[in-house]
Amino acid sequence: MPGSGWSVGAARVPGGDLTYHRTGGAGPTLVLSHGLTDNGLCWSRFAAEMAPEFDVIMIDARGHGGSARTSAEVVTDPARDIGELIASLGLERPIVIGHSVGARATAAYANAYPDKVRKVILEDPVFLPLIDAEAAAVRRAKFRSQVARFQEMSEADILAMGRKDSPGWHDDDFPAWAAAKRQVDPEAFPHYATPWQAQVDRIVAPTLVVHGEARLGSIITAAIADEARALNPNIRTVEITGAGHNVRRENFEGFLAAVRAFLRP
Question: Which among 52, 169, 209, 238 is placed 20 to 30 Å from 251, CA to CA?
């Protein structure tokens, strides 16, 4: 849940606004990007832990939360959106962190603007092969159906579903997660035209890929981690045991320890 004293704002970007929540404070800035169907406040538990030392900004990605909607006719660039928000707020070389599709966007931003970020943390990023147009259309249609199902459910029903499917999550993880499911745009499914390898090879900031175990659903396997490190010597990887794709939700203490160790001066 949002912490006491956190502010909410909107940054102007092409085609609308991006909503964000901010903890404030004098420490270094962390800019957090969430995964598909989440919203910025899905980072709340992590943000509350980091707020005493950092100024934490949680973005609602386009098509999510309170941010601008998406369109089937216009291909949006979430990496550009991150950059537009950073520029709008006048942030100087923040630390950027992302989960899943938000991690892919974070990596793409750090790769395109290597001098604009201090450090990069990617929680189980979508580092997967490109798919053809037909397969992409099938996945988009499946996603639209999923969003339509969320719209037919009450928030209480979504909460109950989440607690049943993910009994190991902390109670604090569910409220924003459930609310986000009714906010997501049916056209928010990501479009990838560039291989992930071409979105990490020029990152110069120290970068940490935090992933779970492949057997539990982590996208990042040992082979993908090896490839990422071989592509760019600035990339480190760490596997968090007992977690899958939702690393911080499935092993919060392990995720937090890895992040704190990486951010330590």
Answer: 52
State both tokens at 40. Answer: 């910025």
Q: For tokens 């049943």, what's the residue?
A: 164
Q: Would the pLDDT of 71 be above 80?
A: no
Residue type, 63: G
By three-state DSSP, how is residue 28 classified?
coil
Residue 237 has pLDDT above 90, yes or no: yes
Please give the domain boundaries of the chain with CATH numbers for all domains: 7-263 (3.40.50.1820)
Q: Which residues contact 34 (CB under 8 A, 6 or more apart)?
A: 40, 42, 43, 58, 59, 60, 61, 64, 98, 99, 100, 102, 180
Distance from C-alpha of 127 to C-alpha of 169, rounded to nearest angstrom = 24
C-alpha–C-alpha distance, residues 239 and 232, integer Å: 18
Residues 108 and 81: beta-carbon distance below 8 Å: no
Q: What is the pLDDT of residue 76?
A: 82
End-to-end CA distance of the chain: 29
Q: pLDDT tens digits for 114-163? A: 999 999 999 999 999 999 999 999 999 999 999 999 999 999 999 999 99
Give the containing element (helix H, strand E) for 97.
strand 95-99
pTM for the predicted model, two decimal places = 0.97
Strand pairing category for 55-59 and 120-123: unpaired
The 3-class secondary structure across 182-244, one letter per residue, is CCCCCCCCCCCCCCHHHHCCCCCCCEEEEECCHHHCCCCCHHHHHHHHHHCCCEEEEECCCCC
The dihedral built from the CA positions of residue 212, 213, 217 and 220, taken in this order, carries a sign that is positive
Instruction: Encode 146-173: b = buried (16+ Cβ within 10 Å), e = exposed.
Output: bbeebeeeeeeebbeebeeeeeebeeeb
